[in-house]
Design brief:
- It is a single chain.
- By secondary structure, the chain is of the alpha/beta class.
- The chain has 14 helices and 13 strands.
- It is globular.
- The relative contact order is 0.18.
Length: about 350
């Protein structure tokens, strides 16, 4: 009897294995992927590429995508021959990557973009608004007034010098926004682009004279921060966990993704700088293997939908973004109402500003 039972169990086990082999591909269409490509990306896109639904959608189109992260402005220093594509957070470092990889003139694609925002604790946002450095448009939404804020930074003002701050013991020390390293990270560099524009009489810094005029203020904005992060991911996570600085520069996509994934934002207030630079995430194909992937990310309806779910704005996709984020309108400004979008300095000038800012 034991022998018969053993034979029966063995047959059942073999049958189960054969069933899995036969039907696994039908249950998991992502196994149809035929091309494996490696890319280097900004960390703010990590969750997008890790999303199981994105993996499945890419697999259905014939791609398995493996990624590593890097500061966007440091990508051109990598061994790019090891990658099939680079996906920095704006077009400026994309040009440097293309030149360094010897693929200048490659068909770049800008599948989605995201403006920079400053996230603040509720107490910090209230103190800023009460002192004319910000303007609230809702409980969790407002505008950072760059002119007044930069004036306060130039004067080395502290939180304690702002009336109303004494009631909040966590608001101490010099007033500043925590950014990433502007010499290697896109968000930090573009914050300098926007700030230098305001400091340069609302004009793009375009020459050495402009650098000299704005460099002292850029230095104050960066030097007060101490150690600089290489990506927005760690400061954002620290803020969400309840630690970190009261004012942190991040991408709107990080906030929108948090809300769309139904995670608790705590007492977060989102302040859109009234002068900003949008960050068009730019896909640079480095090999033939990845040549069509950027176009796919930009045009495939399912991938566009998933990009929105991770907080990104598809190109020409304001209606898509607005509809998806409607339940969270108390935190977001889908139409970027009241926001002045400015151009960026050349790579050479922006990097000169970054180096001067770091001392």
């Amino acid at each position: 009897m034991r022998r018969i039972l053993g034979i029966v169990l063995g047959l059942l086990l073999i049958g189960g294995v054969l069933y899995v082999v036969a039907f696994r591909g039908q249950d998991h269409p992502e196994t149809t992927a035929t091309k494996t490509v490696r890319g280097v990306i900004g960390s703010e896109k990590s969750e997008f590429f890790r999303d199981p639904d994105v993996v499945k959608a890419l697999g259905a189109k014939g791609y398995t995508v493996k990624t590593e992260t890097s500061g966007s402005w440091a990508m051109d220093q990598l061994a790019l021959k090891e990658f099939d594509f680079a996906f920095p957070s704006s077009s400026e470092p994309a040009k440097e990557v293309a030149a360094a990889a010897g693929v200048k003139g490659a068909q770049e694609t800008k599948p989605f973009y995201s403006p920079l925002v400053v996230i603040a604790r509720a107490n910090a946002a209230k103190v800023l608004a009460d002192n004319g450095l910000a303007k609230m448009t809702g409980k969790n939404l407002g505008t950072l007034l760059m002119g007044p804020f930069l004036k306060a930074a130039a004067e080395d003002r502290t939180w304690q010098q702002l009336p109303g701050s004494s009631a909040h013991t966590e608001l101490t020390g010099t007033l500043f926004i925590k950014t990433t390293d502007p010499a290697s990270s896109n968000s930090g560099a573009l914050f300098l682009a926007a700030a230098s524009n305001v400091a340069n009489a609302n004009s793009v810094v375009a020459d050495d004279a402009g650098i000299e005029r704005t460099a002292p203020l850029m230095r104050k904005l960066i030097s007060v921060q101490g150690a600089l992060e290489q990506s927005t991911d760690d400061p954002f996570r620290a803020f969400i966990s309840g630690s970190g600085e009261p004012l942190i520069l991040v991408y709107e996509s990080q906030v929108a993704s948090l809300l769309l994934q139904h995670q608790d934002p705590g007492d977060m207030v989102v302040l859109y700088p009234d002068t900003t630079v949008n960050t068009a995430h730019t896909f640079v194909p480095l090999t033939e293997q990845a040549k069509e992937l950027g176009t796919l990310l930009a045009t495939d309806p399912r991938l566009r939908e998933l990009a929105v779910q991770r907080g990104f704005r598809p190109q020409d996709g304001v209606p898509e973004f607005t509809a998806a984020t409607a339940p969270h309108a108390g935190y977001l400004n889908p139409g970027l109402t009241g926001i002045r979008q400015v151009g960026t300095p050349t790579v050479k000038i922006l990097m000169a500003l970054a180096q001067r800012a770091k001392g």
